[in-house]
TrEMBL record:
Belongs to the TFIIF beta subunit family. Its main location: nucleus. It holds the Pfam family TFIIF_beta. PANTHER family: GENERAL TRANSCRIPTION FACTOR IIF SUBUNIT 2 (PTHR10445:SF0). Residues 186-249 form the TFIIF beta subunit HTH domain. It comes from Anopheles stephensi. The lineage of its organism: Eukaryota, Metazoa, Ecdysozoa, Arthropoda, Hexapoda. TFIIF is a general transcription initiation factor that binds to RNA polymerase II and helps to recruit it to the initiation complex in collaboration with TFIIB. Residues 253-266 have a biased composition (Basic and acidic residues). Keywords: DNA-binding, Nucleus, Transcription, Transcription regulation. This is General transcription factor IIF subunit 2. GO terms for cellular component: transcription factor TFIIF complex. Signal peptide: none annotated. GO terms for molecular function: DNA binding.
Amino acid sequence: MAKEGETIRVDKELDLSNAGRGVWLVKVPKYIANKWEKAPGNIEVGKLKISKQVGQKAQVSLTLSDAVINIDPAEEIPRDHRLDVSVVTKQTLGVFSHAITTTRDDPVPECEKQYMEGRIVQKLECRPYADHCYMKMKLESIRKASQPARQVKSLEKIVHNYKPVSDHKHNIEDRERKKAEGKKSRDDKNAVLDMLFNAFEKHQYYNIKDLVRITRQPISYLKEILKEVCDYNMKNPHKNMWELKKEYRHYKEDDKKDDDATKDTMSDSDSD
């Protein structure tokens, strides 16, 4: 038994006893491949007929068996086909198979043996005859391909599942936000000014969102008051920020001392 985490190594052998055998590579239409995939492994799927005349190429034909044709009677396919033969000359192709040996007690593969079943000597392409059955099958396939993937259907009763979304979440949230702003009552102008002056005593610059949050006023009404007592910065480093006009600024004593000290330092540097 292989232990957990242990790398499983499988010995592989290649049997070349059939390497000299010539095999055919046959390409069949999709409708034949689908029938053969559904067919059980113990039935005859068709017969090959090879006829050759002197001085001419061999004629190869394929006739599907009744068992294959009747696998799905609703899907009618042509019975007779011709096989166009071409010889493989400029490349080497082979057919391989493999068998894995295991034991009943240990499902881990003990040995994997590969077989070369033969070398491809001819390529054959299976083509149907343009008879009535084939033309009918092609018309049906064209009709199915032309049908749109989505179709409009009239509903006789209300469908509760898979209803289209009448509105999107972000639109609903935006409308609710606008309604909430519209319902904000306008306070007295002097009361709003007091709130603004108190705010600007703490910080020199504010954006409009913070001022709306602080005053809880409609944004249009608040901007009217801000234009009277504030300047709107259009340049960096305080772009899109509001600050009090010079005539409304009230600095604390410490701030004035700092400003005076800064001015003195600048004057000293100028004198130097």
